[in-house]
């Protein structure tokens, strides 16, 4: 039963990360990441982002602030992160790897327009009784 509860907590964390990217505060986003988290993303010319590999929660939060300042994400940006097809595989009692598909859509037009899509490969760790995102690799399609 513990693994079922842990998987639900992980799925909720991943959904929370996606929703907070669009509507939450920077502080709420920050709380989802491990102190030593790593964020890896290839260049996304359609969205206007260079490739990046960010090490540590502070660097990841700085990246969130930069994307918000550029109007790419966050409250008022009208872009949405949609997460689907989540598969969670436990590596150990306190660590799991999740694979999911994402869609990044622009809601400024009707119907919404797909801006990018791909996969996330996430490593999650239980820290102090809570699951945190320890690493995210963004893999773009096309």
Which CATH class is shown?
Answer: Alpha Beta
Structural class: alpha+beta
Major sheet size, sense and barrel closure: 6 strands, mixed
Number of helices: 3
CATH domain topology: Nuclear Transport Factor 2, Chain: A
Neighbour order of strands in the largest sheet = 2-1-6-5-4-3
Total domains? 1
For the record, give the distance between the C-alpha atoms at the N and C termini, rounded to a whole number.
Answer: 39 Å
Alpha carbon gyration radius:
15 Å
Description:
The protein is of the alpha+beta class. The protein has a single domain (2-140), classed as Nuclear Transport Factor 2, Chain: A (Roll). The protein has helices spanning 2-23, 26-30, 57-69; strands at residues 33-41, 52-55, 79-92, 95-106, 113-127, 130-140. A hairpin with a 2-residue loop joins strand 5 and strand 6.
Give the secondary structure arrangement, pairings included.
Layout: H1 2-23, H2 26-30, E1 33-41, E2 52-55, H3 57-69, E3 79-92, E4 95-106, E5 113-127, E6 130-140
Parallel strand pairs: 1-6
Antiparallel strand pairs: 1-2, 3-4, 4-5, 5-6
Outline of this structure?
This protein has 3 helices and 6 strands. It is an alpha+beta fold and 142 residues long.
Give short descriptive properties of this protein.
single chain; 142 residues; Nuclear Transport Factor 2, Chain: A
């Amino acid at each position: 039963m513990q693994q079922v509860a842990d998987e639900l907590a992980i799925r909720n964390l991943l959904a929370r990360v996606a929703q907070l990217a669009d509507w939450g505060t920077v502080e709420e986003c920050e709380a989802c990441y491990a102190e030593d988290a790593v964020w890896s993303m290839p260049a996304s010319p359609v969205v206007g982002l260079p490739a990046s590999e960010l090490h540590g929660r502070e660097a990841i939060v700085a990246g969130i602030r930069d994307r918000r300042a550029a109007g790419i994400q966050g409250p008022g940006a009208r872009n949405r992160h949609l997460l689907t097809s989540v598969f969670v595989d436990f590596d150990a009692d306190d660590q799991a790897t999740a694979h999911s598909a994402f869609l990044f859509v622009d809601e400024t037009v009707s119907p919404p327009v797909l801006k990018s899509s791909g996969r996330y490969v996430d490593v999650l760790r239980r820290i102090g009784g809570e699951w945190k995102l320890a690493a995210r690799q963004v893999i773009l399609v096309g």
